[in-house]
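We were asked to recover a plausible sequence for a given structure. The inputs and outputs are reproduced exactly as logged, with field labels preserved.

PROBLEM: sequence recovery
POSITIONS: 501
GIVEN STRUCTURE:
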């Protein structure tokens, strides 16, 4: 009883005595005093129904009224009445003559006069002798029916045959369907209703006003039953990929990093040459990289950089390295492409800020000419970062990555040695999932061949990590394509990490 709202109690009282019967129509309960709207009644009724105190019955009922033609016939008479009158005067009438007399309504008039008993014989319409009275009676019945409908009361009983006949005539009648809802108390409901004595006004929502004025002390607060069923509400929320990107951003910002980004369209110089990726490296093939037709080329901003990178590839410049030992091509370096990794962001940043200590990161989209599978997409996001600092070390690099993964929820990532043309030493971050290793990212210390051409003297710790693979593990997606499927049932389900500590 305590969990019932005042409105629910009022409804129970209003329904007293309805148990076991057909119930009361909802509309009749709306009196502007106890209940002000159908919604109010139905709201209370629905809750009472979930508690098995009220039964709600719904029945679709058809309401018949006059249609457009029906209203016209009521004023001007039925078309068959007009034809009947001329026939009656002459005893018969020729089809052609009748057509002329009645104009447009001739067809309908004839059809319904025949239905009432007239016959057509050799181009003449006749009322068979002795049946004239009967025919007229039928027409009158129809006319009466229309009149009755026009003034219909709830208790009017209609002739079913006539009704069916007129329903077949076009636009004579109009039918509307309405759902009639009736409420009745269940046995439980009757017992509860009998026990209600006074209805105290009570409050189901504590407002700031109630609290500030102190009125809450004298207010009766309605109790909640937290075990009751309530429909699940799906509020809007950020796409999981955006959520995880925001978390990644927050983590790096809180670790003192600054976010950077350069454009998606780059030339091979920044995407590869500056990173000491040789010009015959397989990753530069069209099978792996999306090159652009417009613009086909993009010059490098600074000739000194071009010269230094060229030397590095051809002979290692003055780093003591031998370089790659081939003739470097400016043409190849100026080719435009969609960046294949975000390391292009950090190398550009380094070229522009060669002397600074720095901690920068980016979370950005990259493109590769890849076949889609569970762990590969042609378009994906990378989390890139560098730490530039005199005494930076591999231990620091591992420390930063461990800290990042720990903060995002993965305390047990592992590292093993790896290879990238731009780092030495290089390592790979991975995790084990369903017995298989899943590569999460690459990292390392930029080689002198990468830093020297831009005059960077300090050590640079660098990494590039996959965002989607992280999202997949964190939110329990089956595969990377599922993240982008944007199916509502996938986006709505509660996220469950696949990866466990
Ligand atoms: C790189 O892209 C290097 N630039 C990373 C790096 C940066 C190394 C700085 C050293 C220093 P890799 O191609 O392995 O490396 O990609 C890095 C991560 O991106 C992968 O570990 C993976 O998590 C993600 N990734 C790579 N290819 C795909 C793909 N096709 N779909 C989704 N994620 C991918």
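RECOVERED SEQUENCE:
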């Amino acid at each position: 009883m305590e969990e019932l709202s005042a409105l629910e109690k009022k409804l129970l009282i209003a329904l007293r005595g309805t148990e076991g019967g057909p119930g009361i129509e909802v509309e009749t309960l709306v009196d502007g005093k106890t209940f002000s709207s159908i919604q109010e009644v139905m709201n209370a009724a629905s809750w009472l129904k979930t508690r098995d105190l009220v039964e709600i019955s719904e029945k679709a009922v058809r309401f018949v009224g006059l249609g457009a033609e029906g209203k016209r016939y009521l004023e001007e008479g039925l078309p068959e009445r007009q034809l009947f009158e001329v026939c009656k005067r002459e005893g018969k009438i020729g089809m052609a003559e009748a057509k002329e007399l009645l104009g447009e309504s001739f067809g309908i008039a004839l059809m319904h006069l025949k239905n009432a008993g007239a016959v057509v014989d050799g181009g003449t319409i006749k009322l068979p002798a002795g049946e004239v009275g009967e025919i007229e009676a039928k027409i009158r019945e129809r006319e009466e029916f229309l009149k009755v409908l026009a003034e219909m009361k709830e208790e009017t009983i209609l002739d079913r045959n006539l009704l069916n006949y007129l329903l077949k005539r076009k636009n004579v009648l109009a039918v509307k369907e309405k759902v009639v809802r009736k409420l009745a108390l269940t046995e439980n409901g009757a017992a509860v209703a009998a026990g209600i004595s006074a209805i105290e006004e009570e409050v189901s929502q504590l407002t700031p006003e109630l609290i500030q004025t102190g009125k809450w002390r004298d207010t009766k607060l309605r109790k909640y039953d937290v075990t009751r069923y309530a429909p699940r509400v799906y509020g809007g929320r950020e796409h999981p990929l955006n959520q995880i990107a925001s978390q990644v951003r927050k983590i790096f910002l809180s670790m003192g990093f600054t976010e950077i980004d350069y454009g998606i369209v780059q030339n091979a110089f920044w995407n590869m040459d500056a990173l000491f990726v040789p010009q015959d490296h397989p990753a530069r093939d069209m099978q792996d990289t999306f090159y652009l037709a417009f613009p086909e080329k993009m010059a490098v901003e600074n000739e000194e950089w071009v010269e230094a990178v060229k030397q590095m590839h051809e002979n290692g410049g003055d780093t003591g390295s031998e370089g790659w030992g081939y003739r470097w091509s400016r043409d190849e370096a100026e080719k435009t492409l969609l960046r294949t990794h975000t390391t292009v962001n950090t190398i550009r940043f380094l070229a522009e800020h060669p002397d600074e200590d720095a901690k920068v990161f980016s979370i950005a989209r990259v493109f590769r000419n890849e076949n889609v599978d569970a762990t590969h997409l042609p378009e994906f996001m990378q989390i890139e970062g560098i730490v530039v600092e005199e005494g930076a070390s591999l231990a620091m690099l591992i420390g930063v990555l461990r800290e990042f993964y720990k903060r995002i929820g993965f305390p047990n990532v592992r590292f093993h040695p790896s290879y990238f043309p731009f780092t030495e030493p290089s390592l790979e971050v991975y995790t084990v999932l369903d017995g298989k290793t899943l590569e999460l990212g690459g990292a390392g210390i930029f080689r002198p061949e990468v830093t020297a051409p831009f005059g960077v003297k300090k050590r640079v710790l660098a990494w590039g990590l996959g965002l989607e693979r992280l999202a997949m593990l964190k939110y329990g997606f089956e595969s990377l394509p599922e993240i982008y499927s944007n199916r509502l049932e996938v986006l709505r389900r509660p996220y469950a990490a696949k990866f466990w500590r």
